[in-house]
Amino acid sequence: xxxxxxAPAFQSLRQxxxxxxxxxxxxxxxxxxxxxxxxxxxxxSGETGAGKEMVARRIHxxxxxxxxxxxxxxxxxxxxxxxxxxxxxxxxxxxxGAVSDTLGFFRxxxxxxxxxxxxxxxxxxxxxxxxxxxxxxxxxxxGSVKSHSINVRVLCATNRDLKQMxxxxxxxxxxxxxxxVVAVHVPPLRxxxxxxxxxxxxxxxxxxxxxSESYKVLSDEVKKLLVEYSWPGNVRELANVMERxxxxxxxxxxxxxxxPTEILVAVPAERGEARLPTxxxxxxxxxxxxxxxxxGRKIAAAKIxxxxxxKLNRLLYKYNISISREE
Length: 327
Description:
Helicase, Ruva Protein, domain 3
């Protein structure tokens, strides 16, 4: 089992707002430290779930706007009238259902930071309206002729190649250059395995604080499984796995039983060259999973595996698997 981490160590990790310790992420931190105190716009690129919002929040928390609001906006949900209304606000009666005035995300973020996630998904005809707001630092609510000055730091994220989209006339060049003052690329988690365990512990801390419970630590076997997994869903998947592991763990040690199936039976990712598991390794993992799912009941486990009980008994002996329940 892994050594339990002390409460002060956990607190230190939480206070550092750790999102990575690898060489790749160290480069990102250097950029963050250099630009956090500036007002320039930034584009944060990377695969879906790679941790782009975590980078944006760190930039905000390291800036002189840290005590102001951070407003994340999912641009995939913004189209047509809804785009203007949600970003810039509207006045009462501007459209059917507009029963009162609203501020919109930009005015709500005044003095702070707005994070436009998946900026590439904003339709071309609406990009011009966004560009005008960025150039003038003013917004005009839908249905109004009155403009409101705003002081907002703009951070954007995308999982697509915006420069290529500009070349294909799918993204406005003027908006791209207005946003792309500084660019940061967040590598996928599979390319920075050194970050996996620090992130996993960070997410466990968040769960313990959410429930006001004692801290939980990862067993050595769980650590090995987490590092070997390829994480196609990146940091977002890791966060979900840690939440699942936390709520399913009744002790202070997280064990493999609380991990999802895809991690238990996954092919290890060994620094770019995957190693296929042996047949014995794969069978042993699946048998352990079936026993865990059945609460240690052999008959139920055999049914899950599609095996006769005698065959299961032979495999249990072969793989030196002992269980306390026999029914």
